[in-house]
Specification:
This protein is of the alpha/beta class and 394 residues long. Helix content is 38%, strand content 14%. The protein contains twelve helices and 13 strands. It has helices at residues 15-28, 47-58, 71-85, 100-111, 127-134, 154-159, 183-196, 252-263, 271-282, 287-306, 334-345, 371-384; strands at residues 34-35, 94-97, 117-122, 138-143, 165-171, 199-203, 228-233, 246-249, 313-314, 322-326, 347-348, 350-351, 362-366. It has a seven-stranded mixed β-sheet with strand order 2-8-7-6-5-3-4, sandwiched between helices. Strand 9 and strand 10 (322-326) form a beta hairpin.
Length: 394
Amino acid sequence: MRKIASRISQLTGEGALAVFSRAKELEKQGRSIIHLELGEPDFHAASPVVDAVRAAVASGRDRYVSTRGIPALRQAIADYLKRTRRLDIAAEQVLVAPGCKMALSLAMMALIEPGDEVLYPDPGFPIYPSFTRGLGATAVPFFLEERNQFQPDIAEIASKITPRTRVLIFNSPNNPTGTVFSAQALASLAELAVRNDLWIISDEIYARILFSGEYQSIWALPGLAERTVIIDGFSKSFAMTGWRLGYAVAPVQVIDAMDLLVLNTFTCTAEFTQVAALEALIDSTNAVEAMVAEYRRRRDLFVDGLNRIPGFRCQSPDGAFYAWVNIEDTGVPAAELADLLLDQAGVAGITGAAFGPGGKNYLRFSLVSARHLLEEALERIQRISVRWRAAVTR
């Protein structure tokens, strides 16, 4: 029998999609489900963006375009990063892709060799270790622990660097913890990268969903622009998940390599979505600011409510739109508790182990439902907590 390539056996899926499928099946059976599993905003693209894509299609902007992205968008992204992150980037350092995940995959293919080692955060986005293994490299976790407010332990990371270490990947704000890496952590990671000649892949997809302060990108630190790839896109900050539009920012030689991969895979990103993205970056209706303000209100409401549930403990996230809840004190394994909440309470969340072994005692809830639904979810969880309340000691 003909075999599938062995690299496929090294890949894993995403827990959120499996939970979503099960939750939808329960809904078909007539069950009321509050969806807090997917990292998909309940907002939609701002009306000027929708108008722009409609006009682009109507005017025939549906042709093959540059493999790197249309020049106007590449320049607009450079200007946007200057405006929002104080980064000095040239348009030739930008490549547009159909989604952040594709931009990430292209960057990893361009930088990682079989036999390399790649450092990644645990808990973290599960595609980091999955695709690393698919490329024939070794995924080496560094842990984000509650005792450190989920900041990286620099000494741990340094101890795991070997002559085979090639790339350090992270995202800040982090999915699933919502942690924004401190300026001190970024400076220490930068020093490690320079000293050990590492590439950095900085996943900044949640950079605009920040609840205080100004976003700091590791790209801006001395000596890092020449060894950093920024991954970002329109899914989270502009509520354009299904539009599949992301981008990478990197040194020109990396962009050249990624461009060759584009030519050998998907040819180009749809022109009409790129045209609409120009309008998104302008953000004439201040849609991003309004969305983040709403996420902040949801965070405050939901985290406060979670911390009132027996056995639950949740640090308030600094960014992104997730609540990362320690449930160890309930005495119920996280996977069992997630099933209980879905089956008995109609609340869909994800077990933390979906984000790595470091998440085994956690659940992740997304703040992507309206506040009245979050309030209802809290009431449902509170009611079902009678199942474990007696075992909780405070």
